[in-house]
Automatic annotation (TrEMBL):
Binding of substrate, residues: H15, L16, R17, N41, H136, L219, H251, A263
The organism's taxonomic lineage, starting at the top: Bacteria, Pseudomonadati, Pseudomonadota, Alphaproteobacteria, Hyphomicrobiales
Subunit structure and binding partners: Homodimer.
Any one Gene Ontology cellular component term annotated for this protein: cytosol
Top EC category: hydrolase
Superkingdom of origin: Bacteria
Keywords for the protein's UniProt record, in alphabetical order: Hydrolase, Metal-binding, Pyrimidine biosynthesis, Zinc
UniProt pathway: Pyrimidine metabolism; UMP biosynthesis via de novo pathway; (S)-dihydroorotate from bicarbonate: step 3/3
SUPFAM superfamilies: Metallo-dependent hydrolases
Designated name of the protein: Dihydroorotase
UniProt family annotation: Belongs to the metallo-dependent hydrolases superfamily. DHOase family. Class II DHOase subfamily.
Gene coding for it: pyrC
Catalytic reaction equation(s): (S)-dihydroorotate + H2O = N-carbamoyl-L-aspartate + H(+)
Pfam family, one: Amidohydro_1
Species annotation: Sinorhizobium sojae CCBAU 05684
């Protein structure tokens, strides 16, 4: 196959940041994607509906006038989140989901939830009204190995929560393990998972072999090859419970290339080329559309985009910059370590 026409994709997990970084990265998403679930982990975080509404306006103001792009807003769950505000935001259509960050799990998560009991009134209300909970599914206690954080989160936090509130709709975001895939596949209802572009391509060797490679460091951290293979099998399966969330997470290079580098990989600009490559390798180009454009909207109760995009396989490798320049500094682009031939035309 040399050409593929699919419905315009959406990104179900995206970090756009704010200010100069937002202005520098937004077009790389809005060029190809119609909508994206926008992560609320700004400093300070997007906690209330009013915060989300103001952030949405800033995103729209930064979007190039000739791009049509709809930011789908989320609220950052804190132990003080007001159930009434969540309900009002969700019912108005502004808020599409609420995000659970276990405190300390990842970039800008210090206001996250320490004690899930304190968030129960909000979670109960969300279960009642059908508002999805997006979770960064990792425990953060020092006794758990970083490579086991996701599996332990499922056992100790997620499964008990879902048993207690079976009506709560949960998106397990950026699934990185076979444990996560198997847990989602075993579920009967109200659970889905997003998978990033980079976790389909790299395993933990990318970070550690031949020198430490900060631009392959993200959270949840890439795991062993067996896990990557399980993610790939799920992504290309067309199972409605799995869809794309790039987790494209820009950090200016000096914040990654240092003694305590930030977690996050920037993939917005070449994600579709990478995904077409992966799906072609798996003999599953006919299922790319389900992953990028159909399963996500179905889960979030939205119509799939009507507009189409065309991917075409080029003779020469696709050219994309190694870094983008932003007002907040240069941001290194994800290097899949192989040439890409599929381009959005
Ligand atoms: N994925 C990452 O490595 N980083 C994200 C946070 C997150 O999604 O956990 C970020 O905000 O930089
Ligand atoms: Zn996360
Ligand atoms: Zn993220």
């Amino acid at each position: 196959m040399q050409e593929l026409v699919i419905r315009r994709p959406d990104d179900w997990h995206l970090h756009l940041r704010d200010g100069g970084m937002l202005r520098g990265v937004i077009a790389d998403t809005s060029r190809h994607f119609a909508r994206a679930i926008i992560m609320p982990n700004l400093v300070p975080p997007v906690v209330t509906s009013a915060d989300a509404s103001a952030y949405r306006e800033r995103i729209l103001a930064a979007t190039p006038a000739d791009h049509s792009f709809e930011p789908l807003m989320t609220l950052y769950l804190t132990e003080g989140t007001d159930p009434h505000d969540v309900e009002a935001g969700f019912k108005s259509g502004l808020v599409k989901a609420v995000k659970l960050y276990p405190a300390g799990a990842t970039t800008n998560s210090s206001s996250g939830v320490r004690d899930i009991e304190k968030a129960m009134p909000v979670l109960e209300r969300m279960a009642e009204i059908g508002a999805p909970l997006c979770v960064h599914g990792e425990v953060t206690t020092a006794d758990v190995d970083i490579f086991d954080r996701e599996a332990v989160f499922i056992e100790k936090v997620l499964d008990p929560l879902r048993r207690r509130l079976p009506e709560l709709r949960v998106t397990m975001e950026h699934v990185t393990t076979k444990d996560g895939i198997d847990y989602i596949k075993a579920s009967k209802a109200n659970l889905a998972g997003s998978i990033t572009t980079h976790h389909l391509i790299i395993n933990r060797n990318a970070i550690l072999v031949g020198g430490i490679k900060p631009h392959y460091y993200c959270l949840p951290v890439a795991k062993r090859e067996t896990h990557r293979l399980a993610l790939r099998a799920a992504a290309v399966s067309a199972d409605r419970r799995f869809f794309l969330g790039t987790d494209s997470a820009p950090h200016a290079d000096p914040l990654k290339e240092c003694a305590c580098g930030c977690a996050g990989i920037y993939t917005s600009i070449n994600t579709l080329s990478c995904l077409a490559h992966v799906f072609e390798e798996e003999g599953a180009l006919d299922r790319l559309e389900a992953f990028t454009s159909l399963n996500g909207p179905a889960w979030y109760g939205l119509a799939a985009n009507e507009e189409k995009i065309t991917l075409r396989k080029q003779q020469e490798p696709v050219r994309y910059p190694a870094k983008i320049e932003t007002e907040a500094g240069p941001v290194t682009v994800f290097d899949p370590m192989f040439p890409l031939y599929w381009a959005v035309v």
